[in-house]
Amino acid sequence: MKCALLLPLLLLGTVSSLYLENDASHLGSREADLSQDLEGSGEQEGELALNYGVLESEEEEAVASSYQDAFEDEEAMESDPAALDKDLQCPKEEDTIQLPGSPGRKTCRILLVRTPKKFRKAQNICRKCYRGNLVSIHNYNFNHRIQCWVSRINQAQVWIGGFVRGWGNRFSWADDSSWNFGYWAPGQPGNGRGRCVALRIRGGHWQRARCRSRLPFVCSF
């Protein structure tokens, strides 16, 4: 009779032991999953922090670039002759192309300088060497003539005299003439970057460009 009672008790103990082992196994599995989730969360946070850092770096570079362009613009428009480059060398005659002037304009001579220069340097050359400025354009016909003249050089674009003055978004001409005409490429100037204006040789449209880019340029005097 005692043996009959002991057998169910032994079976009950064995089953209870199995349940405890299974619970321990499930608990260990859950802890492992939780650890993996925490590790994955840490990696995602690290990636987010890295991406945020990259974005911050790109924004800082963009701001620094904007400051640099603005600084060069203001230097380029410096009117004091003494502030011009003392060691500036005027272009050789073989590096220039004389273009016919435009009737009705105050300036009667137009010169294409084929040697690429930064905007500031180009403006200084126009002033010091020719007593003029980078060319201003006030109507489509003159813009088309400039485009046809400069198409003889193997370049994508040339500097003209447009630039953003100061820290606003207002365009001006280097010769201080009125800004009464524009021939912008699609998306320009709103989506463009840079504070100086270049003329595309193909199509003759204008686009914003970084002032420190080196381009051929057109002087008027």
TrEMBL record:
CDD domains hit by this protein: CLECT_EMBP_like
- Tell me which Gene3D superfamilies the record gives: Mannose-Binding Protein A, subunit A
Q: Which domain of life is it from?
A: Eukaryota
Give the matching PROSITE patterns.
C_TYPE_LECTIN_1, C_TYPE_LECTIN_2
- Signal peptide limits: 1-17
Q: Which InterPro entries match?
A: C-type_lectin-like (IPR001304), C-type_lectin-like/link_sf (IPR016186), C-type_lectin_CS (IPR018378), CTDL_fold (IPR016187), EMBP_CTLD (IPR033816), Eosinophil_major_basic (IPR002352), Snaclec (IPR050976)
Gene Ontology molecular function, alphabetical? carbohydrate binding
Kindly provide the name given to this protein in its UniProt entry.
C-type lectin domain-containing protein
